[in-house]
Amino acid sequence: MNAASNAAPDAPGNGRAPTIRDVARVAGVSASAVSKVLRDAYGVSDDMRAKVTFAAQMLGYRPKTAARALRGRSYSIGVLTPGLGPFPTQIAEEINRHFAGSSYRTIIAIYGGDEHDETEGLESMLDRNVDGVILITPHIAVERLERFAASLPMVLVSRNGRGAHFDSVTDDGFAGAEAMVGHLAGLGHRRIAYISQSDQGLEPPYVLSSASREEGYAHAMADRGLAPWVVRASYSEDGGYGAACALLDADEPPTAIFAGADVAAFGVMRAAYERHVAVPAELSVAGYDNVFASGLHGVDLTTVDQASVGMGDIAARLLAERLDGRTEPKYEVVAPKLVVRGTSVPPRVE
Amino acid sequence: MNAASNAAPDAPGNGRAPTIRDVARVAGVSASAVSKVLRDAYGVSDDMRAKVTFAAQMLGYRPKTAARALRGRSYSIGVLTPGLGPFPTQIAEEINRHFAGSSYRTIIAIYGGDEHDETEGLESMLDRNVDGVILITPHIAVERLERFAASLPMVLVSRNGRGAHFDSVTDDGFAGAEAMVGHLAGLGHRRIAYISQSDQGLEPPYVLSSASREEGYAHAMADRGLAPWVVRASYSEDGGYGAACALLDADEPPTAIFAGADVAAFGVMRAAYERHVAVPAELSVAGYDNVFASGLHGVDLTTVDQASVGMGDIAARLLAERLDGRTEPKYEVVAPKLVVRGTSVPPRVE
DNA sequence: GTGAAAGCGCTAACAC
DNA sequence: GTGTTAGCGCTTTCAC
Description:
- The structure is a homodimer.
- By secondary structure, chain A is an alpha/beta fold.
- Chain A is built from twelve helices and twelve strands.
- The first copy, chain A, has three domains: 44 residues, Orthogonal Bundle (434 Repressor (Amino-terminal Domain)); 129 residues, 3-Layer(aba) Sandwich (Rossmann fold); 134 residues, 3-Layer(aba) Sandwich (Rossmann fold), CATH 3.40.50.2300.
- In chain A, strand 6, helix 9 and strand 7 form a beta-alpha-beta unit.
- Chain A is elongated, with a radius of gyration of 26 Å.
- The first copy, chain A, starts with 19 loop residues before the first helix and ends in an 11-residue tail after the last strand.
C-alpha cells in the first residue's frame, strides 16, 4: 500500500475531535500546561513538554483556530486580490510558499474592483481575525487603509506612496514605462500610443503602480518632443481590442501601441490581425507585466517584467516582520526590466 | 469627494470593535435577541428587528466569525487547490462569484500535489471550522475523503467516481480524449502520440479526470487499429517540452502530438520551433483545457474545452445544496467539447 | 514550573 | 416574543 505516512492518525477515535482537555487528561497535566507547550510559551519543563507532545500526537490533536482566535492569534494571514489574473496569482503563490513552512496559513479571498467591495473584503478578513493581511492592487482610500492598518499588520502590493502604519512593495511603473518608450522611440517610432486603464480616482501619490506607468509614458514622450496619445480602456483582452480599433481607425494611426498590461496587448494583436495590419511589420505592439502567455512562441510580446522579481516574496517577508513586532513602515520599490521580444521592430519608412 | 457610500460607518468609535452586547445595550434588548435578529432566526417581532438593525448599523457592528464558529457556523467555505493555474483559477472564481451574494465567504487555500500535503490543507480548513469545502483535483485516497466528508459538506472537482458522502463534478475526460483522437485520425494522422501526466497512484474508478483522458486516448486509438504511443511528463511547459523532444527524436516521429493539458502543448510547440519542425505543416499539436492563452491569435491551439462549461458554478451549487441539508450524493459529469483551431491539419503525404 | 479560574464573543437551550 | 443561563475550546492572569 502506498498510503502517505502522516503524523496524526486518521481515526478521531470516538465521535468529536479531541480538545486540549483530552490531551491534558491523557498527559496527566492541566489544560493550561498543554496550551503553553503547544505555543512554545515560556516556563515548561522538558518532561512536561515530552508528555504533552506525546499525548497530542497520540490523540491526533489539532488546535481549533476559532477558539484560539477568540483569545489570541488565528495563525491565518489573509491575501486580498481583485481577481486571479496572472499577476496577482503569481504574488499569491509566492506568499503562500513563504508561509507554508511556518505555523501561519495563507487564505486568499477575491474582492475588488472598487473601494466598496474591497472594504467589505477587508472587513470580512477582520471578522475572521486574520493576524495580518496583504492587499494586492487595492483601490481603498489611504485614510481608510491607515485606519485598518493601525490595528492590523498590513502590506500593500503595487500601490505607490509611503504609509504610516502599513508597508508597501511596488514596481517602479514610471521607470518601466519610460524604458519602454525609450525602446520604441529608439527603434524610430514617433507615433506611439498608450492604452491606459480608466482613472481609479485615487489621490496622488497613493496611486496604483499602473497609474504611474501612464505618467512615465507621458514624461518620456515629452522628453523626446513627441506628442502623447493616450486612450483609456479596461485592462482586458476586450478592452485592448476596443482601444486598438479606435487607434487603428485614426487618419494617421500609430506605428506602435504600448498597452499598460499584457492582456490588453493581446487584444491589440487581435484587432490588428482582423484588420490585416501586420505585427510587427506594420505595427509594433508592447505590453506590461510579462505574463506567462507573453513568452509563448507565437505571441512573443515585447513587455516589461515586474512580477518575476518576487514582489510576493518581499510582501510576505514584510508581513512576517510585522508579525514579529516591527511597526516602522517600510516602502520597497523594485526595478522593472524591459523584455524585448518579437513584436517590436523599427517602423516602416513612410 | 468621491468616497464610496458604505453602510457601516468607518470609525469604530472608541477602542475595540463593538460586540453583540454593545448592540444589545444600544437597542435596549438582550444579547440573544440581537443574535436572533442577525441570523434571521424564528421568533422576533418587527419592532425588535427594527431596533436591533438600527443599533447594529449605527455602531458599525460586524459579527466575529471566530466566536460564531465556536458555537455554530463560520459562514466560510473553503476551496482547496493544488495551485493557481488557469483551470483551478477559473473554478475558484466561479465559486467565489456564486457565494458572493450570500452570507458565506469563500476562502481559497493552495495545497497539493501529493496526498500528505493536501490532507494537511484539508485539516487546516477543518481547524478553521469551514462549513463546507470544495476540493479541486484532489489526490487524497477516497477512504480518507469519505471519512472527512462524513462530517463536512464536500464537493470534488475533476475527480471520477461516485462518493457516498461527497458530491463530484467532473468532465468526461474519456469522451474528450476520444473526440480529439477522432478529429486527428479523421484528418489522416496515424502516428498520434499522447503526453500524459505521471501516474497519480489513485485507485480506479476514483482517478483524476486527467487520468481518464489517457484511457480515452488508448481506447480511441485501438478502435481505429492504431498503436497507442504514450509518453509521461508533468503537466507544465517544461514537461511538455521535454516529452516533445523525446518524441521528435524518434526514428519515425509522430505526425500529431496530443498533450493532456494545454500548458504541456505550449512546450511541445516550443520544442517543434527549436527543431525547425513547422506547426501545423509538419506536426499537428493539440491540447486539453482550452485555457485563455490557447485562444490567442498566434497560439491558436486545437484543444478540448472543459472549463468554460461552468464546473465551478456546478460545484458551488452542489455545496450550497449540502449546506441546505441535502445528504444523498450527487455525481455530475459535464460533456467536454472539441475546439478545433489552427494547430491541427492533415499530415503531409509521405 | 504548574494549575485554577475567568473570560474572549457568540449561539442554543430553556424559562419566563 | 424575549431574556437568562450555560458553554463552545482555547489563552491568560495570578496564585501556589
